[in-house]
Amino acid sequence: MDRVLEVMTEAARAAGEVALKYYRRGVEVTLKPDRSPVTQADREAEQIIVEVLGRAFREYGFLGEELGAQGSKEIRWIIDPIDGTRNFVRGIPIWAVLIALEERGKITAGVILNPVTGELYTARKGGGAFLGGERLRVSAVSSLDRATLIHASLGLLRSSGHWEGFVRLVDATERQRGFGDYLCYTVVAEGKAEIVLETDVKPWDLAPVKLLVEEAGGRFSDFSGLPSIYSGNALASNGRLHEAAIALIRGR
User: DSSP code of 96?
Assistant: First the structure.
């Protein structure tokens, strides 16, 4: 593991320790203007990530869910201190610390840590995707009728205007499951599912999972096929089924 990933992992573990204390004893929840939940655990976890990364790489900027943008935009860390806050506050152990490094618009490193299970996913541009020390590979499934489709909130999909495209994907695939948050993408990177789609997502939700899927041999884009984390929607796949999925989503 190179120094960048080592420091990212250190920051994620430190944030995870902070978050776990609140997770085990409970935490007060407040709502942001967009009605999404936030807790003291989110704020403290992001602050410690900024401190750890800032000590090691003083010239890099930050884009965080809670603290916003700071410093350089050319090279910056993208941070979600608790991805899956709704799960976190309800005691569901599907949440993670997400950290990515963005260099001139490209994601070059990513770390995903579930502090409850201890699962650590890492990815480096050109260096592969890993769960612990095991290299990840997407599946070889090449037909939609054998594919597993993963989705997040059905309500968000319905309200986003993409419901008909989603239903077409449901009808075309063999199996469908709703996991949500980072887990949507890690199961694709691990070769356990083939397609995931999400709407109403922010860059910090997507930055490290994009690289993880790509370095595992898959593909990540928005619903138009653009490989961006800034479009508000996301599609990830094993690569073989990506164009077919886009065609169904867009009704082509």
Answer: E
Q: Would you place residue 25 in the very low, low, confident or very high pLDDT band (cuts 50, 70, 90)? A: confident
> Which CATH number among 3.40.50.1100, 3.40.50.300, 3.40.1190.10, 3.40.190.80 corresponds to the domain 144-250?
3.40.190.80
Among candidate residues 66, 80, 102, 181, the one labeled active-site is: 80
From the list 102, 205, 215, 222, the catalytic residue is: 205
**Which listed residue (39, 46, 48, 85) is catalytic?**
85
pLDDT at 32 exceeding the cut of 70: no
CA distances from 33 to 30, 36, 38, 197, 206 (A): 10, 7, 11, 25, 21
Residue 83 among the catalytic residues: yes
Task: Indicate if 181 belongs to the active site.
Answer: no
Q: Mean pLDDT over residues 169-179, rounded?
A: 96
Instruction: Tell me the Cα Rg of the chain.
Output: 17
Verify whether residue 2 is a known catalytic residue: no
Which DSSP string corresponds to 36-60? -EEEHHHHHHHHHHHHHHHHH-TT-
Task: Summarize pLDDT for 218-252 with one digit per residue, the tens.
Answer: 999 999 999 999 999 999 999 999 999 999 999 86
Read off the pLDDT of each residue in 47-55 and give the average, rounded to a whole number. Answer: 97
205 labelled catalytic: yes
Can 65 be counted among the known catalytic residues?
yes
Catalytic choice (65, 102, 215, 222): 65
First to last CA, the chain: 43
